[in-house]
Amino acid sequence: MIDVRRMRLPAWHFGLGRELGLAFWAMFFVEAAFGSYWSIWPIYIGSLGASAPIVGFIVGASGIIRLFVMPPSAALADRLGSRAILVGARAIAFTGYFAASFATDWRMLLPVVIAIGIGDVAFPQIQAHVAAQSKGDTTRVFALVFVVGPGVALGLGPLVAALAIGEFGLRGAVFLTSMFTLASVACFAALRHLAPAVQRAVKGVEQLGEAVARSSYRQALADPAIRRIVLLHAATLFSLGLGVSLLPLFLAEVRGIPDERIAQLSSIQAVGTIAFGIAVSRMRWLQRNPFGGAAIAVGAVVVGLIIFTSTSLIPLLVVGFVLRGCVFSAWTLFSSAMGVSAKPADRSRGFAMIELAGGSAFSLAPIVAGLIYQLGPRAPIIAGIVLSILVIPVLLRSQRQVHRLSAAGATMPATAD
User: Fold this and answer.
1) CB 198 within 8 A of CB 209
2) What is the pTM of this model?
3) Of 356, 327, 287, 333, whose CA–CA distance to 123 is shortest?
4) pLDDT of residue 8
5) Distance between CA atoms of 391 and 86, rounded to whole angstroms?
6) Which of 47, 191, 291, 386 could be joined to 399 by an S-S link, Cβ 3.0–4.6 Å?
7) Are 117 and 62 within 8 A, CB to CB?
8) For 386-410, b where at least 16 C-beta lie within 10 A, e where not — what string?
9) Residue 10 — very low, low, confident or very high, per pLDDT cuts 50/70/90?
10) What is the Cα–Cα distance from 343 to 396, expressed in whole angstroms?
11) Residues 124/351, Cβ–Cβ less than 8 Å
């Protein structure tokens, strides 16, 4: 007979510790929110009277907002502290999602995308916090906090959303998104060791405060490693986003798949996200070769997109959604590379540029896809396939270049002062 008293359940933080555990659950709820609405977001916008180009614009408009709100986010964090940025930004996002669930016309969603764009400024702060708390194991911790946990949420979110859609219609999924976002706000608010405001830095952290104060975007971009990561991240995310952003609209209009079923199928992409995240957390090769790993993830998404354009058979579509989940794995590999490569003083701005470049590219993609969609429903997917294939050799060549530079640095003789 099993002795229940001796059974040990995993700690709520899964061995990561309190701070990283809270970050884990915060990102879990963030991704659950994303999964709850993203798969039906284009359909919801269309149901409010928007044409295909307008749908693409609304889907991607938050990226335009990023261009204005992301650059000053690091300076605001210096002035107000990371806690104010994290909690405030995600609280604004909650307000936007909550309001969206009551919209009756697509024009009412314009303030919503502003709120969503503002909410995204929280990501550089939580990434910098996790990098600072990971104690030299950045790639593995990033895989757990930003891939594995969110990957599970990415699977659960659409499933719960499908139940909400069945009961309350598409609005139910958007309302559910707001509730998940509110849960993430609570987790962010419970963090203790966030970077303080620079002007309030106490004596024990004065040096850190001075280092952050001297940092700037110009200084961060002067680092070739940071420039490489930002440019590759933007190119990769635009290519993938072009193929996947209007996929729900394609499946609804061309394949004739019901909204509820699309939400259910979208949950399957979590299998790909989780599997790739576990592989990154366990395989040293992927940890040492983030650009190579990103190339593998891009290749997997390309295969998935080819499946979507070629067949309507549900078993094959399931495989396609599993492969589509690698989009988020590619994103996280670039973020973990930034956590390893950026100097502590530049880290917050480095992550801000990752979010600005990648997020803007991923948000610009549906705007372009909406215009291309008028040429034919398959056109954006095919364009995404072509661009993604072109990105793969660039990523592999960049990885070889990084290794050559590292080897050259390791063999360079020390010089006397």
Assistant:
1) yes
2) 0.68
3) 356
4) 54
5) 33
6) 291
7) yes
8) ebbeebbeebbebbeebeeeeeeee
9) low
10) 24
11) yes
Helices 347-373 and 122-133 pack at an angle, to 10 degrees, of: 140
* Residue located via tokens 């034919």: 376
Residue 163's Cβ-side half-sphere holds a number of Cα atoms within 13 Å equal to 5
Task: Say if CB 188 and CB 122 are below 8 A apart.
Answer: yes
Q: What interhelical angle do 18-38 and 149-168 show, nearest 10?
A: 40
